[in-house]
Design goal:
Elements (H helix, E strand, L loop, with lengths): L16 H5 L2 H9 L6 E3 L6 E4 L2 E7 L2 E4 L10 H12 L3 E4 L4 H9 L3 E8 L3 E4 L2 E4 L2 E4 L7 H14 L15
Parallel strand pairs: 4-5
Antiparallel strand pairs: 1-2, 2-3, 3-4, 3-6, 6-7, 8-9
Length: 174
């Protein structure tokens, strides 16, 4: 809750080296606390934005939530693929702001099902625990959730040609 990765009017919505450079000190501090990555929030530290250098997805009850593209978040191809698949599977999908308070309340009530990052290099990366201030919460017993596993399989099956590409996601290069 001390560092800001991106702010309105900045570079958060574009692929720029500055986005990665700005995250290095925070990443080092997260590692000192025993975490692999940084949970990024908005400049007021009230709403979730990204996890590490990946788009973030949270499952609360039966709702699949990812932060809306509001100028501070880079909209990635993998994020789009996740949203497409979830909608095809008739899941309830929301692109909206998600507050830290809502996440913590959902966890306390036993309604937080999954958290994962998605991105080009990582595809789908489950989040086993989150730290916020002096609190650490374990998600799904620290194990990858059902949706994260299903999405990883579906996306990599297309990438590796194990299933036909029915959506035009693959471009063959001669």
């Amino acid at each position: 809750d001390r560092f800001v990765r991106a702010a309105p009017g900045g570079l958060g919505a574009v692929k720029a080296g500055a986005n990665y450079a700005a995250s290095l000190l925070a990443a080092e501090e997260a590692k000192k606390r025993g975490f692999d990555q940084v949970l990024w929030t908005d400049p007021e530290h009230r709403h979730l934005e990204e996890v590490g250098t990946m788009n973030m997805v949270v499952v609360i009850d039966d709702e699949v939530i990812t932060p809306a593209l509001d100028g501070t978040i880079l909209g990635g191809i993998t994020r789009d693929s996740v949203l497409t698949l979830c909608r095809e599977w008739d899941l309830r999908v929301s692109e909206r702001r998600l507050s830290v308070d809502e996440l913590l309340q959902a966890e306390s009530a036993g309604r937080l099902r999954e958290v994962f990052g998605c991105g080009t290099a990582a595809v789908i990366t489950p989040v086993g625990q989150l730290g916020w201030k002096d609190r650490t919460i374990v998600i799904n017993g620290g194990q990858p959730g059902e949706l994260a596993r299903r999405l990883f399989g579906a996306i990599t099956d297309v990438q590796y040609g194990r299933v036909p590409d029915s959506r035009g996601w693959i471009t063959e290069i001669d």
